[in-house]
Design a protein that fits this description.
This protein is an alpha+beta fold. The chain has one domain. The chain has helices spanning about 1-25, 65-70, 120-125, and strands spanning about 30-35, 35-40, 50, 85-90, 95-100, 100, 125. The strands form 3 sheets. It has a 3-stranded antiparallel sheet with strand order 4-5-6, with no helix packed on it. It is globular, with a radius of gyration of 18 Å. The N and C termini lie far apart (about 50 Å). One of its GO terms (biological process) is alkane catabolic process. This is Putative lipoprotein with Yx(FWY)xxD motif. Keywords: Lipoprotein, Signal.
Length: about 130
């Protein structure tokens, strides 16, 4: 009986570690087809955008900007790899970036596949392409 309990505990621990490693290794976005072509989208299928005023590894979209363009936030325990990096925002929170460009959604996109943020603010917002 004790041996069976120990095996079960070890299996659960192994699965938790493996599951955590898998969660950390997964990309924070996926690719979907939109009317603007292939785009990066979040877990809900909402289009992701980049902002021309950001610099490599630095978001300048804060306050009202971040209310309208919510950053793609990093879940606790996630780690970056490959083209995916993590940007520390001015408030200390963490945001995903793709090829050093911070990623955002747009509050006026209502459903997956919407790309209404393309070209906003004097053509400074663009659909994030893979």
């Amino acid at each position: 009986m004790l041996t069976s309990i120990l095996r079960a505990v070890m299996l659960v621990g192994t699965l938790a570690v493996a599951g955590g490693a898998l969660a950390q290794a997964m990309a924070p976005a996926k690719v979907a087809e939109t009317s603007k072509g292939k785009a990066l989208v979040d877990a809900k299928g909402m289009t992701l955008y980049i902002f021309d005023k950001d610099t490599a590894g630095k978001s300048v979209c804060n306050g009202t900007c971040a209310t309208n363009w919510p950053p793609l936030m990093v879940a606790a325990g996630a780690s970056a790899s490959g083209d995916w990096t993590i940007v520390t925002r001015d408030d200390g929170s963490k945001q995903w970036a793709y090829k050093t460009k911070p990623l955002y959604t747009w509050v006026k996109d209502m459903k997956p596949g919407d790309v209404t943020g393309e070209g906003m603010a004097n053509n400074t917002w663009h659909v994030a392409a893979p």
